[in-house]
Every structure is written in C-alpha cells, then in structure tokens.
Write a sequence for this structure.
C-alpha cells in the first residue's frame, strides 16, 4: 500500500489563508517597498533653457525652422558639449547623461533640459549647453544665413521634478496588489486535491443476515 506524499508545510499554510489575505499582504509589502525607494532615492531637479533660430535677410522662416531641427540634434554632440563642460564645471560624460534636447515642428526653437541632484547644477548645465550651441551656430552664420539666439535662460528650480515618496508608495502598493491577485489566481484549489488525497474507502464485511439471505 503506497502512502500519499505529505505536502510541503508552506503550501498547506498558503491554502489555509483566506483569499483576501494575498491581496492585502501584496499591497502592504509593495507600498512599503515603494515608499522606501522614494525616500532613499536622491531628488532630481530639472532646468530648461530655450534658444531660437532667427533667419537673416538672405534667408526665410522655413530655413530657420529646418536649421532649428538640425541644431537640436547636434546640441548633445561632443563638439558642443566639449565647450559646455568648461562653463558647467562637469565632465562631458555627465552632460551626455544629464542633458536632453527637444524641437518643435511648428516653431524654430530648441529646448535644452538638464537634470541633476543639485538644483543649481541643473540650471548651470542647461545654460552652458545653450551658450555653447549658440556660439557654434554663430561661427557658421555666414553659410547658413540663420542666427541662433538665446530665448530664455534656465533658472534654478525651486522644487524637485522627481516623484514624491507618497507617489512611489502608491505605485508599489498597486503593483503588490496586482501580484497578490495573480498569486490568488494560481493558488491551489482545496476541493479536488483534498478529495484525491483521501484514501479510498474499503467496504466493510456484509451483515450475517444479508449473507444468509443471499444463500
């Protein structure tokens, strides 16, 4: 007679828990992890400078718009960042990782955004890149007939742009609750497995009267 293998203790305990407990545990654990991450992660500050392409008398607004798109692509190249690192006081690698540019299909304008754990450094990096970009555009003004001018300087941000610990906690709680719901779906059912684990009933001996009547 073969013995039914004993189930792991963890599996038996998991099956004994009420269904809502997985959702609650997942949400609480995710909220704690998300809130802790938001507290421990250093804040990030973002500053943005704007430059605008202006056509000369020998050019037109359409050409200025096209060159603005081109300047937006070269703003993060080594030729521009090599001069910007002197004014920003940070290595080129830091500028490559922290500075992003964006252009508009409707306006000849380039936005230069820098992100840093220091508010003053974020503004310094954005202004340094915009200054270097305008200098490079000025050197080729006679060939492009487009001048790049500073439209707005980056100012020191007054608050971080990164999400608060409360938000990361809510995100973590939502993710934990979702994970708990998935575990609830794959949680073993109690009915069929318990019935299968029970040994088959062996019929008892027949009563003497029944046996006599059968004869």
């Amino acid at each position: 007679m073969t013995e039914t293998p004993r189930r792991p203790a963890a599996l038996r305990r998991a099956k004994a828990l009420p269904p809502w407990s997985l959702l609650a545990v997942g949400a609480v654990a995710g909220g704690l992890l998300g809130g802790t991450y938001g507290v421990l992660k250093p804040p990030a500050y973002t500053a943005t400078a704007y430059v605008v392409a202006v056509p000369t008398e020998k050019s037109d607004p359409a050409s200025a718009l096209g060159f603005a798109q081109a300047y937006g692509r070269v703003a993060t190249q080594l030729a521009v960042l090599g001069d910007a690192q002197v004014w920003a006081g940070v290595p080129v690698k830091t500028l490559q990782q922290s500075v992003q540019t964006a252009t508009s299909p409707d306006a000849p304008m380039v936005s230069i955004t820098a992100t840093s754990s220091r508010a003053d450094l974020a503004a310094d990096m954005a202004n340094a890149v915009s200054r270097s970009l305008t200098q490079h555009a000025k050197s080729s003004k006679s060939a492009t007939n487009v001048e790049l001018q500073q439209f707005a300087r980056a100012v020191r941000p007054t608050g971080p742009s990164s999400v608060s610990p409360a938000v990361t906690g809510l995100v973590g709680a939502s993710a934990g609750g979702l994970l708990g719901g998935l575990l609830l779906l794959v949680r073993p059912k109690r009915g069929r497995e318990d019935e299968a684990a029970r040994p088959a009933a062996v019929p008892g001996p027949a009563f003497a009267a029944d046996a006599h009547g059968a004869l």
Remarks:
- The chain has a mean pLDDT of 77.
- The chain is about 55% helix and 15% strand.
- The CA atoms of residues 65 and 106 lie 8 Å apart.
